[in-house]
Design goal:
By secondary structure, this protein is α/β, with parallel strands linked by helices. The protein has one domain: Flavodoxin domain (Rossmann fold, 3-Layer(aba) Sandwich). The protein contains seven helices and eight strands. Strands 1, 4, 5, 6, 7 and 8 form a six-stranded parallel sheet that branches. The termini are far apart.
Length: 247
């Protein structure tokens, strides 16, 4: 009985870790915007000042969002993604990866060019338990797997969506290879990730690339895999909020 209990708790812990819930420290967050309160406003009652701060921040956020949306229109878009098939958590054995499905929806809605981030020497196991062990070892080694192909004319793209599954609270190592291989200065990065409860885990912080990083989308892998209609609605809502597409 004790052995059974130990096995049970070990499985729960593995699911907890690989869903990305045990997140790494974010460490790359943007600074918050100034509140915009003028000196003369400080004499107002606390409740009034609090309201002004909220409204000012809201207006500023809307202005930034609207300006960013205008800048995105008419630009060349790349949708780069890393995705896996085989046995995956929450969905069983799959022939098309969860992140690939999300990427295809994004490309279809934006007219973007799809690019799959693939390691040249693909040794990722198909069995789930073996896969998460391999991924953890790669992360410990801070590996940078060589990729099988590169984006043609990368410099021509203005906006780059980057998608991946969240593994052990981090991006898969081939995604780091892709990011570090290219010059993102002057470009816009828009991250998206598939997960099973963790959300991004702070993996969307890519400001060190020199790019403008816009709000990303975290989508459940099982939703992308098993409920394409729901996944599409989430993607469309997100892209519309960003101002990249219109309803």
């Amino acid at each position: 009985m004790k052995r059974i209990n130990n096995i049970f708790f070990a499985l729960i812990f593995a699911a907890f870790m690989t869903s990305g819930i045990a997140c790494a420290a974010e460490g790359d967050k943007g600074k918050s915007a100034d509140s915009g309160i003028k000196a003369e406003q400080q004499a107002k009652p606390a409740a009034s000042v609090k309201k002004d701060v909220k409204n000012s921040a809201k207006d500023k956020g809307n202005n930034v969002k609207n300006n960013a949306a205008k800048e995105e229109k008419g630009k060349k878009i790349l949708v780069a993604y890393f995705s896996r098939t085989g046995e995956q958590y929450g969905v069983g054995v799959i022939s098309k990866g969860n992140t690939e499905i999300a990427a295809e929806i994004i490309a279809a809605k934006t007219g973007g060019t799809l690019f799959e981030i693939k390691p040249k020497d693909d040794k990722y196991p198909k069995a789930y338990k073996d896969l998460i062990k391999y991924a953890k070892d790669e992360m410990k080694d801070n590996a940078r797997p060589e990729l099988s192909a590169d984006v043609k004319n990368f410099a021509d793209y203005d906006t780059v969506f980057i998608g991946y599954p969240v593994w052990w609270g981090d991006k898969p190592m081939p995604v780091y290879t892709f990011i570090e291989k290219h010059d993102f200065k002057g470009k816009t990065i828009i991250p998206f990730a598939t997960h099973e409860g963790s959300g991004f885990c702070g993996t969307q912080g890519m400001s060190k690339t020199g790019a403008t990083v816009r709000e990303g989308l975290g989508i459940y892998g099982h939703v992308a895999q098993n409920d394409r209609e729901k996944a599409e609605k989430q993607v469309v809502g997100w892209l519309t909020e960003l101002g990249i597409i219109k309803k």
